[in-house]
Amino acid sequence: MARAALVTGASRGIGLAVARALAADGAAVCVTARGADGLAEAVRRLGPHAIACPGDIADPAHLEEAVSRTLAEFGRLDVLVNNAATNAPLGPLMAADPLDWRTAFTVNVEAPLRLVQAAWRGWMREHGGAVVNICTEGTHDVGPGLGAYGTTKTALLRLTRQLAAELAPAVRVNAVSPGLVRTEMARFVWERDEPAIAATLPLARIGEPEDVARAVRWLVSAEASWITGADLVVDGGRRVRSAYRPRSAPPT
Ligand SMILES: NC(=O)c1ccc[n+]([C@@H]2O[C@H](COP(=O)([O-])OP(=O)(O)OC[C@H]3O[C@@H](n4cnc5c(N)ncnc54)[C@H](OP(=O)(O)O)[C@@H]3O)[C@@H](O)[C@H]2O)c1
Questions:
Q1: Pick from 125, 104, 107: which is nearest to 116 by CA?
Q2: 35 partner at 20 to 30 Å CA-CA among 53, 84, 189, 247?
């Protein structure tokens, strides 16, 4: 039987693009999100081998249900993509409510670990598999107002490496770290002045969800069978932009 995948936060944006890419490769896909209507529409677009498991990844019972429903429906769970996340609370850390900070860790770090644990116990320990955690290009830098997001995503990247070591050789665990991508989560950044932002990027445009999905698709494929613990940065060159000079600019 074809591979089965579980993708969190897949009613729109990067998660939906990942689910579509995996489905196009023949995988059966279980997708999650809080909003049941958006998720139902995503499943309709994904085709006959997709199911929805609505719920909040902050809820441990939902995570157990997502894994058990995938196994019950498809009989296997080969690929787990931890994609759903929160960028709240935004703003200076001295103004952050510690309870919001805790929620950020619950959603961005604890939930991915819980899902890997459930997938490991239910399928991957015995049969193998591949996990991709969606981090962010921004883990190597600091950004205004992004203290909670950046800290949790840096923790997720660290978790990725630890899991890669602990679950090898049965399960490969990698990160994909996007730069700025045209989704709802990042709309407050790119909508302000997309042409100006694009002009700062070596590859001259912001990302599309499909740019990230192609990286995930490759990392979970047999093509990447000797890769674990890696962080694949998909950012249009943002991380190297300090040395980038647009061709029209005079050399310095
Ligand atoms: N866009 C960027 O520029 C960018 C850059 C770097 C990294 N990323 C990362 O890429 C991933 C996807 O982000 P995106 O930009 O595609 O965001 P998005 O377009 O806002 O989509 C987020 C998805 O996750 C779901 N979701 C959010 N919170 C959830 C929760 N607590 N439980 C279950 N589902 C939840 C949303 O549906 P509901 O709201 O219905 O739950 C939606 O399906 C995230 O990990 C993000 O940190 C994005």
A1: 125
A2: 189
